[in-house]
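Reopening this ticket.

The earlier resolution said the output was attached, but the attachment link was broken on my side. Pasting everything inline this time so it's all in one place.
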Amino acid sequence: MLGSPFSPWRSVLTPQEALDIACSHLENARKAKSSGLALTFCNNADSALARIRTSVRKTFVSSSCAEDRILCNEIATTYFELGKLLDGLGRRTKAQDSYKNEQKWGYVSKRQQYYLLDIPCSNI
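Inline output:
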């Protein structure tokens, strides 16, 4: 299993990698024919996002770089979508946890995103 795209769950992912994996799992959850399978995909999505280190999240959230802020918003939106799916599966407590994570990633409205696009990245 060496070299597998699904590395051990304890490894750290970049925010973009975690987002890509989580979105893939959420898409599978939406298409799942059973609630048990959908819940498994939701748990996998949550696990992928949880593999982003807290220190990395704090750096991205506090960044003034437009690309970083947009990535944070995409991750926050993914947590929101995860919460909606979990709510639909009757997992309200897990859904609330997902909504809290959405807030930690600093959700930015579409209107604010347009403003952020004018801010250049100084660390590129």
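Reporter confirms the inline version is readable. The CA atoms of residues 60 and 68 lie 6 Å apart. The radius of gyration is 15 Å.
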